[in-house]
Amino acid sequence: MIPTILWHQTPKHVHLLIDLKNITKEKIGIAKHNLTFSAYSSQKDYEITFELSNEVIPEESAYTINENNAKIILTKKDISEWIYLQKDKNLFKNNIKVNWDLWETEDDDEDLDQNMNSMMHQMGAMTGLNDIGPYRDLQDDDCEDDCQESNCCKESNCCEMENYCKESNGGDIENCCENKKDCKACCS
Question: Of 137, 155, 175, which marks where a domain is finished?
Answer without folding.
Answer: 137
